[in-house]
Amino acid sequence: MNYLLLGGGKTSLECLKTLIKRKKKVSICLQKEELIKIKEYYSLIEDVYVFNNFYDIDFNKYDFIVRSPGLSILNPYIKYLKENNIKLVNEMELAYLLTNKKGYYIGVTGSNGKTTTVSLLYECIKKQTNNVILAGNIGIPLISLIDKINNYTIIILEMSSFQLEDMHELKFDIACILNLSVNHLDNVLNLDYYYKSKFNITNLQTSNDYLIIDSNDTLINQYLNSKLKAKIINYQKIELNFNDYKLKGEHNLKNIKAVATILKILGFNLDYQIIKKFEPLQYHLQEKQYSNHLIVNDSKSTTVESLKSAINTYKDRNIILIFGGKNKGGNFLFLNDITLKKKICFGSLSKEITDLYLDYKCYDLEEAVQYACNYMEKDDVLLFSCGCSSFDLFDNYKQRGEVFNRLVSKYINEISN
Fold it and tell me: What confidence tens digit (pLDDT) does each residue in 73-87 have?
């Protein structure tokens, strides 16, 4: 077998290490700025051929062409491959094939809530079996864990639309589509393409498999069709006999119901103590109390729907909202119809919007935080829920969340003294 890796991100490098370890013939295509990332791997092998131009490659020579999820369909090279019907696979499908399709696969996708859902599901299953792994869009390449997979391993995968674009052979025993909303318009052909990519998660399922959905989701219903073979289950129908948990908001209640539905299919118990103790993930509606001020860091909010959910979670409080970043095609006009104490927009979005009634807008996040803190009063909520990607000012949402925390500590202390 002959393998070609496209892109030099974390996923491609994990593929490279695994293929080298298994003595496979492998080449990699990198942009010039990515070459430095690959140098540490040169000592492992002598026959890796490095391309830095797609047009120099004879793609017919390769049995598997593995695309990095960071290379979107709008990338001119990827568009060229798609237009020429050159088959691409993702890293998870490669892992699936390298392990001879061993394991029991659970895939979770959706526009929002994926990471919280798969993390909570993993904690619940881990309590009942050690033979479970969590990987995928959560930041853990499945290819790095294949030595742990046997016939009985439960594999939980968080699946992005980009990863699902290149899904041809990986079959999910349980697939879950949490929700659908406008997202990634900066990196997909159009919304129809994006929604259909999400439904690729069920393409290979049979009548023995399960597709879990929210039947109240208008867009999910729109894209359901008679060709689907899996048993369809509405996770909203499951009843929970508790309401004491740390995950805030109606959207997280839905995530818990999705987890409970999957556990029921598996024949596992829903452990209330795990649900009760499960903390919000980093920068997912993460709360911190400063004296009389509640600060909520929701830097992971990268869609308008997640922003709406965050506002709804604190709707009974006086909210000072900081939002913005690089817009992914979302519509923020709904903010004109709700009353907030302050609406503050930062980042590239602040330069684009002209139809919002804002209290303040600026490009710099520090300026936005300083303005917000100057208006903080007792029992107010400072809600940092961006509704946009972070790539105008930051490397990722985690860096954005870290910077926000530092700035809040600085300016909250200033107004408290």
Answer: 888 888 888 888 888
